[in-house]
Amino acid sequence: MQQPFSPQTRLPSEWRQTPLTVVIPTYNEAENLAGISEAILGLGLSGLRLLIVDDNSPDGTGQMADDLAARFNRNGQARMSVLHRTGKGGLGTAYVAGMSQALAEGAEFVVQMDADFSHSPEYIPAMLGVILSTGADVVIGSRYVPGGSLDEGWSWWRRFLSWWANLYSRTLLGIRVRDMTAGFKLWRSSALQEIGLKNIRSNGYIFQVEMAYLCERLGFRIIEIPIHFEDRRIGQSKMDIPVKLESAWRVWELAWRHRKRERVGRTNAQIVSTDVLVDDGMLR
Ligand SMILES: Nc1nc2c(ncn2[C@@H]2O[C@H](COP(=O)(O)OP(=O)(O)O)[C@@H](O)[C@H]2O)c(=O)[nH]1
Ligand SMILES: [Mg+2]
């Protein structure tokens, strides 16, 4: 099947200057950090800043991030920064801290992604092209829209778990986003402000579900673009079985907690997926 858009999207030069902060939470990612930082900062997006949120990783990821930042920030540039937290506080609170800092520093757009190359940096220009050309509130790198795919190495059991988690949370929350647990997203800053990061309590996978749910509750314009999701290149997943199980009952809890959040003067969320995308990442 033909890819509905090219990951190596070329953007007009003024779009490349868009103030955009990529937030990556890390816990024991020393083996991935240099590679992912170089790939992201090498995309040729002059407005892009990289923010690492490290939880005092025992493998020294935090120190390595400082060293990389010193290298990338030579000549008075501010391309990379590091937020150090004192201990493993979970993915959700790491994102809330990192996104809050990005907003405070004036980012117009914020990308969230893993450090482990599951989310290929090559999609970032395409996601930026889509959000700028459509005015969407959020672009989701989705495994479950036409053209999206999962690592061939995933066992049937992992596929089943991911499929089931999606079906369960979509049905229970009554929402239409296809990839509810997607961790690769590009946010318009105004959308994060409207969500109110201080209202987010979830950690683990449920953080992604909570954010997706609020996007629909608040009537956002959501675009899912297809990605190929690679298994992490090096190291182990930090998401263990208890985190996964906790997510299941937390879906109920977040449905209750956000029951009064309204769409402010908007009709239903508009959810668009790839069938309207053309080769260069722009919408028809
Ligand atoms: N700062 C911080 N990062 C975390 C924590 N847990 C996971 N991460 C990072 O969050 C990202 C997603 O975790 P990962 O293990 O790849 O989850 P998976 O892709 O679902 O297997 C990776 O970059 C991890 O290093 C945490 O407690 N604190
Ligand atoms: Mg990962």
Descriptive labels:
8-stranded mixed beta sheet, 8 helices, 16% strand, Spore Coat Polysaccharide Biosynthesis Protein SpsA, Chain A, alpha/beta, 284 residues, globular
Number of domains: 1
Number of helices: 8
Low-confidence stretches: 278-284
The CATH topology assignment is Spore Coat Polysaccharide Biosynthesis Protein SpsA, Chain A
Main sheet record = 8 strands, mixed
Strand content: 15-25%
Heterogens: guanosine-5'-diphosphate, magnesium ion
CATH-defined architecture: Alpha-Beta Complex
Q: What structural category characterises the helix and strand content?
A: alpha/beta
* Residues in helices, as a percent range: 25-40%
Q: Give the CATH class.
A: Alpha Beta
Total beta strand runs: 10
